[in-house]
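Sequence design from tokenized structure. All designs in this work follow the same two-part layout: the structure record, then the generated sequence. An example of the structure record is given first.
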């Protein structure tokens, strides 16, 4: 449970950034923002683990409280102020709320509500309005337009999305455009996306690797780009690429395995932990590597390896015992 809580805590700011862009400042003193973040982070992670760590009755009670959180957000979205717009955007992010009622806000003079209206433009016949919003003066409106485009999957958006991915001043908007383009990219678009790589910041590079792996795009030379990243780059993008290659098929499994092993054995702690999370654990050779890492690596990496070993029947008891010792000693926390 402590591992999950720590992971959720680390992800909170990232989730806020991905969902609300420029609303970081609001989070510091806004109860609604806290409620939204708790709802989304907990809803995503805890639903997976509740029944493994808690008694069934306790799990049901916690899940009921999550439903109450959503109802709170729905009620708050009925207002007209900035917080109401934030609540409405949160609901749209999970395909809830009242998009038909909010669509009229696309022309609002208030940028927060204009973003809400633009986020509802997910139909092909609304493409002209959606593409116009991609060059709005407000970054949250541009972000909403790119997110709406990802849901629309309209090939007519390709040129506009590529322009946003190249030129938007906000990294988050570029990331959203890259993701949207990944669902509709042609082979030529895949090459254009490769041209973005040299000057792309880290989040955009990670988005490029993910977009190249989207269905259809992977078959349109996306796989070549992923292999290039795995073989020539380092850090998170390369680890993502290696994980994709390992799971794609026999033709790429060897390259992916080699890159993942290298990432587990070398590099900074954060990358090693991520590589461990991406690695399989059921095969004997991976199990041995994880055992070795759990004995020799720095504490935070050892914890990641032991958490993986705790999933395997043969090593579960040993791993949990060692995790308990580390938790009591506080070694991992000292190095985080």
């Amino acid at each position: 449970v402590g591992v999950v809580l720590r992971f959720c805590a680390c992800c909170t700011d990232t989730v806020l950034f991905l969902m609300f862009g420029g609303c970081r400042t609001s989070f510091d003193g806004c109860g609604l923002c806290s409620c939204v973040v708790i709802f989304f982070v907990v809803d995503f992670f805890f639903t997976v683990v509740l029944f493994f760590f808690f008694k069934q009755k306790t799990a049901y009670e916690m899940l009921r409280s999550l439903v109450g959180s959503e109802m709170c957000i729905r009620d708050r979205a009925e207002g007209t102020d900035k917080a109401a717009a934030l609540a409405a955007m949160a609901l749209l992010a999970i395909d809830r709320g009242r998009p038909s009622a909010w669509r009229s806000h696309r022309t609002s003079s208030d940028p927060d509500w204009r973003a809400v209206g633009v986020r509802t433009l997910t139909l092909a016949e609304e493409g002209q309005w959606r593409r116009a919003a991609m060059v709005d003066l407000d970054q949250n409106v541009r972000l909403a337009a790119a997110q709406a485009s990802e849901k629309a999957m309209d090939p007519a958006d390709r040129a506009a999305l590529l322009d946003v991915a190249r030129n938007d001043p906000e990294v988050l908007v570029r990331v959203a455009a890259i993701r949207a383009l990944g669902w509709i990219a042609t082979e030529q678009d895949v090459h254009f996306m490769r041209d973005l790589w040299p000057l792309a910041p880290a989040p955009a590079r990670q988005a490029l690797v993910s977009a190249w792996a989207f269905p259809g795009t992977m078959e349109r030379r996306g796989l070549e780009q992923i292999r290039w990243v795995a073989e020539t780059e380092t850090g998170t993008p390369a680890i993502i690429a290696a994980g994709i290659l390992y799971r794609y098929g026999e033709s790429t499994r060897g390259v992916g395995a080699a890159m993942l092993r290298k990432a587990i054995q070398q590099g900074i702690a954060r990358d090693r932990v991520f590589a461990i999370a991406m690695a399989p654990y059921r095969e004997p050779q991976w199990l041995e590597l994880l055992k070795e890492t759990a004995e020799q690596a720095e504490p935070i990496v050892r914890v990641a390896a032991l958490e993986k070993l705790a999933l395997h029947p043969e090593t579960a008891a040993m791993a949990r015992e060692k995790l308990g010792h580390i938790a009591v000693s506080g070694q991992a926390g000292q190095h985080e």
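The radius of gyration is 22 Å. We note this feature because it recurs in several other targets discussed in the main text.
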